[in-house]
Amino acid sequence: MSNATDIRQSGGTAGSVDHTDTGLAVSRTIPMPPTDTLYRAALTFCLDGADVMMYAALKGAESAESLWHALAQSHPSQPSGICGPALSRIDRMFVDGLTRWGRKASANAMCSFRNALAGWHNRMMDLPSQDIIQLGDWFTMDGTQWIIGPGHPCWPSQLADLSIRSDWAPPLCLWIKGDPRALTSCAKPVGIVGSRDVTEYGRYVAHTVAEQAVVAGHLVVSGGAMGTDAAAHWGALNALHGRMPANVGRTVAVFAGGLNHIGPMRNRTLFERIEAQGGALISELCPGTIPEARRFLLRNRIIAAMSSTLIVTQARLRSGALNTAGWACELLRDVYAVPGDINQPCNAGCNKMIGDHRAMILCAATSTEDICHERHKPVMAACPGIPKSTGQDSSENEEAMEAPATTPLSPASSESSASQESSQDSGHSKRLRTKHTQPTLVQSKDGPASATAEAGANKSKGEEPPSSHQMPDLRVKPKLDPEKEAQQRIIIAKLPEMERTLVALIRECRKRHLIVTPDALLRVARETVPDEIPNIGTILELLGALELRGVIERDAGILKLSSRVG
């Protein structure tokens, strides 16, 4: 492990993050966290989750550093001459913190504090070193993760609302991968949550509402899980297509474990895209923390606190999304629920929330004007380690012509619109490039090579390199000329029987106007060929084989047949 003090002396940089996979070679340095933030990270390491005792003690201490030293000196292994005075000092910090918090220091509270203190003493000995300044690289995973505290310009101030009750506590600090400015890019973010086993109806609503919110410049917050969360994040990311990055909002995923344990792995591409398009992955927990089930419930409070408006798109009666909605109600957030078929258990949670008057009805997915504040551009706060003038924030971008707004993604139109866009984008992107050197995702369909060439030209002129928000879609394959395309035509009849069956299921999903996903394919398979495709594992295996053959393509998690399929 490199020495954190040497890093400070060499410029205060903990590391750098290269998005070389985007084809634009964008680099961002991550500065070493301030001393107080490092001590907050060390105190977080001692916790097993949100801890009101630690929050109160820190509130009564002069700084996180002074609390840490009192904690270290009060350890039972210290001589009595050091341990005794330190215990008195840390008790006084706790009492002062309770007073500042507007609480009373009862005998039960002091007993609970001493029990918590014993747990902190045990955990602090697991640190690689007791010299916290030397652990800068360790806490930031060799400079690949930001750590910010309440004094940082990108700290979400609404997290302070978590202290309104004596049994709640805000995070001491946050670990971040991506752009920390996303957290404060919108004054009133929109949270979108729901079940993992979401139906096509719930997936469509989450995707569409998120896209519409981000088009209006708002921040979308969710949990990065499968189902509703993934649909919301993809909807937010898709809003960038055909629009200037400076005008669209961002998305933030909140995790229940350390950021080196983000999951599920099926969403790995999603997480990479969130980072590359200016969003952020965040956690209140140290790297290495396992995302246990109970930590997801604590994670939900951060989603609720960060959101000004929370939308539950689909939830069962025992869904974790209802836990998030409960936090939001306690925090006096605006809570909306999407009504659904009363005969479907997957809609029972939302319907009950509406019936109990704990949520308002979301009347439309295609417009967020009635539930969000006014349209705006993302506010990019000055952040140490990020240049003030990046490509997406330049005045040239603000003056440039913006691509026409696309219609919200719908199950019926998501695939049929692709061919129309490809013909319109070529002419439109040329007009945009006459005024812009930075391609949008739509413009980058001309190929990663052209984007790299433009980046090189800009660099030779002394201009800023393009932002990672303009990441070309590397999954788009270059177009073949008609003769070569005819030679490489894929004949479905020549495929193995099981693969032909899956192609038929994909076409059946399109016929039913469903978004083609593995879950949708499994549902259709259970209705039509239950004996041939018994489980999701078979679906994923066949999809992998078809993708290797070039039969199918993926666009933001949605499957479609290749244009070469005959």
From TrEMBL:
<feature type="compositionally biased region" description="Basic and acidic residues">
    <location>
        <begin position="460"/>
        <end position="482"/>
    </location>
</feature>
<comment type="similarity">
    <text>Belongs to the DprA/Smf family.</text>
</comment>
<feature type="domain" description="Smf/DprA SLOG">
    <location>
        <begin position="147"/>
        <end position="373"/>
    </location>
</feature>
<feature type="region of interest" description="Disordered">
    <location>
        <begin position="1"/>
        <end position="20"/>
    </location>
</feature>
<dbReference type="InterPro" id="IPR003488">
    <property type="entry name" value="DprA"/>
</dbReference>
<feature type="compositionally biased region" description="Polar residues">
    <location>
        <begin position="1"/>
        <end position="11"/>
    </location>
</feature>
<dbReference type="InterPro" id="IPR057666">
    <property type="entry name" value="DrpA_SLOG"/>
</dbReference>
<dbReference type="GO" id="GO:0009294">
    <property type="term" value="P:DNA-mediated transformation"/>
</dbReference>
<dbReference type="Pfam" id="PF02481">
    <property type="entry name" value="DNA_processg_A"/>
</dbReference>
<protein>
    <recommendedName>
        <fullName>Smf/DprA SLOG domain-containing protein</fullName>
    </recommendedName>
</protein>
<feature type="compositionally biased region" description="Low complexity">
    <location>
        <begin position="402"/>
        <end position="424"/>
    </location>
</feature>
<feature type="region of interest" description="Disordered">
    <location>
        <begin position="381"/>
        <end position="482"/>
    </location>
</feature>
